[in-house]
Amino acid sequence: MTTGQHIIGFENSASGTETFHSYNPTTQQNNGYVFFKVTPEEVNAAVEKAATAFQFYRKKSGAEKADFLYAVAEELLNAGDELITVCCEESGLPKARIEGERMRTVNQLKMFAELLKEGSWVDARIDTALPERAPLPRPDIRFMHIAIGPVAVFGASNFPLAFSVAGGDTASALAAGCPVVVKAHPAHPATSALVGKAIKSAAEKTGMPDGVFSLLFDNGIDSGIQLVKHPFIKAVGFTGSYKAGKALFDAAVSRPVPIPVYAEMGSTNPVFILPQAMKERGAQIAAGYSAAVTLGVGQFCTNPGMLIHQNTGDDFPQLLKNEFEKTPGGVMLTPGILNAYNSGVAHHLAIDGVEKFALSPSGNASPDNWATPVLLKTDQSIFSNNPSLSEEVFGPTAMVVPVDSKEAMLDIANNLSGHLTATVHGTADELHEYKDLLDILEQKVGRVIINGFPTGVEVCSAMVHGGPFPSTTDSKTTSVGTAAIYRFTRPVCYQNMPQQMLPVELQDKNTLHIYRLINGENTNKDIN
Amino acid sequence: MTTGQHIIGFENSASGTETFHSYNPTTQQNNGYVFFKVTPEEVNAAVEKAATAFQFYRKKSGAEKADFLYAVAEELLNAGDELITVCCEESGLPKARIEGERMRTVNQLKMFAELLKEGSWVDARIDTALPERAPLPRPDIRFMHIAIGPVAVFGASNFPLAFSVAGGDTASALAAGCPVVVKAHPAHPATSALVGKAIKSAAEKTGMPDGVFSLLFDNGIDSGIQLVKHPFIKAVGFTGSYKAGKALFDAAVSRPVPIPVYAEMGSTNPVFILPQAMKERGAQIAAGYSAAVTLGVGQFCTNPGMLIHQNTGDDFPQLLKNEFEKTPGGVMLTPGILNAYNSGVAHHLAIDGVEKFALSPSGNASPDNWATPVLLKTDQSIFSNNPSLSEEVFGPTAMVVPVDSKEAMLDIANNLSGHLTATVHGTADELHEYKDLLDILEQKVGRVIINGFPTGVEVCSAMVHGGPFPSTTDSKTTSVGTAAIYRFTRPVCYQNMPQQMLPVELQDKNTLHIYRLINGENTNKDIN
Asked: What is the pTM of this model?
């Protein structure tokens, strides 16, 4: 069903000799799919094609790029059940989850297509000439965002569709006008191949240039570093571990010409439960929290891996234990991820004063590759004295830290590193009372959630899926939502450029009817 | 007139023992002003005060921050003739230039104050809840930009007012809501002290927190590296040499928590003269170009240091030589800059095939510290084979490269590294004919100028004073114009936050009347 070959522009390629297998974590067998490891020459060919394609693709109109993205969405649907089946096989994730993830991926592509069709995203700014101004006349200056150049995208293990080959990084880079070279995640190469075929087909059908998209396979790291260091690559999108993301960042900033790396590396996503809310709806919070920690076998970067509540002597701890002990375990994405999960939990438990607080019953008769959810618990002094306890363990686990006072909560909040999200459960009154906690948290994260849970990242204009280091390598961006497009653009301005030579977005006649900032006024009118 | 002391929040400090002198490049004498070198403890004290102040300053309304910036502008005017006199003494620049630069600095502060008062800059985005949506309800999500934290700013040698203590970096960081710790440039410490006093006074008068601004003096580099490496510093603004800017960048990205460095490091700003324009108005272009190269003794990062024209056998070379030989030389900012200028010119002239094409008459009887404008010339093959010839020599010089064809122009354009600006002189018809040249240039620079010169950077909403590396360390930003504020902000979103707990910019009732993106619609209306 797959050729095992790389997609380099509109051609397939397999010039290497080494291969690797696609693996089924549920059966613990190799799937039937064999993939060639990409060669340095193939990496170079893909990037060179991307650089050539860039000169054509950057000139495509918003409507043309939108048609391309719509076509990708359609081809993903056309990939039908085969895509779902293969993706389930490779990820061990259930069918409903993968179907939902495909719909999310399709909708994300459509969201960027709509953004392009509307067109105002280019942030057009026009200051018209003031020839009579003293002491010096003002020239005519017009500003907009343009595409930055070819982008390298690294697929994520935990979202084989939504954060991989046709995921948010690819969709936003293509929307920006940048060709994309994807390195498929080796945990789901056959899924990646099907998605890559869909993008290639969409590019051909909508008249996009050869090289606007390439897809490379490798189960090693050298090709990724080669990509990031290639002089024609202008930015990098990545979702995955701190170790891998930081390695790409270090490679990118030490290039002769440094480039931005947008690495979303996950976080522990602290949850604070305020006393009155805990009292009023402890059971509901306990159930919701347990479900969020174990959803998708805990394999989300927004997994709420840290829970802080006050010791008020009520029954919340018991409720939490009861609810957590109802959660199911599951097959993890790869044996490597399961190993890391088990050793992360073991590391925490080896610290004196950390205890196993609640265990999923699935631990009793678990098959291999099966992760058993476990809730750990410690006290504030041990938590504060062991910074590693606040680091992410990727999987269905969390650290519960009961504390004695509001001040202790603030202290923990103040000592947080950067996270993607922070959550507070509280009644209306106590949220006011804890305004200082919220003030701290908004400085530590990209998204503050009230009375909810961080899993479930809405794809919309207002989303920030990002946060201060070490949750990402660039706190000033988001990897989900329409603002993600600006990761792959830069502003340029034109001074005294003749009308007909200007990009259509900046001409006097506003044929696109976009909003523009004209001499300080936000308007979609023409300039007369 | 100055105490020679550091300004640390609302206090003066001079706990060190080492001192340095302010120098007058015109008289080649030390001025009477003596400054203490900052100690590591003082650097730390300033940053700690900034971090404390941040918790108060970030909560100031747009109107309150605007009042502060207006007050800084007023205090700069109140500094009166003393500021002008001292600045002229320290820089060797003429009075009219410094008066103009003060007005530019004042207007820049007012521009950011107006931006804050209007308020839409926060890019508010609101996606309201869809509780009935299937399969999952959509939560209420609201997005805006918030301040990133304390910022370190490095004053520039060549703009003692507009790019220094109260310059664009400081103004945009303060506008964003970030306290600023400035390291004064050692070439104009007395000027910096007067400006620092004005900012401190404005902060006190408008009720800003102690620590919102500090000013440190040092004629070495250790304190600067200490600032950039300090864990409480969240971003860096810098204007100056490639060497210094790149060193700060390297220090910042190798921190345990990397931070962004916005270093504007200058460029050679190529100018392309197309044949028909050269024929029709060669004299005018020659005069304008000669003036731009030698303006301010060539000490601008937008100095047009590279001129490419086609050999059409007309009299443009002679016109250019005639015009350039009318230009005046001048006293450079520091002996170090003059030395670098002279050795840069000597380096180029040492390359076989590079010749002295035109010399300012000021070379004949120049005093010390005096730079003599010189136009160099070479041919395309020598230019292409010696990449160092396209590097900036800071001062009143430029490299003229006559070429044989349009293709040769395109070839030079394609081989350009990143620059702040590129300029093309052409008739309306030939600009169309050279559309491919313009397409290349917009990928190489932050600003494309038609039939003008790059010196003179308009302070406005549409300006991009930035460009691809090595002209800056972050091509995605600008250091001049209102968009400069986003260097010091990051987006955050609030999910299901109660109305009254939201920042005022994001509440249903739009009391600030700002433009917001509400469910995809750009509007300044309330949410009902």
From this structure: 0.97
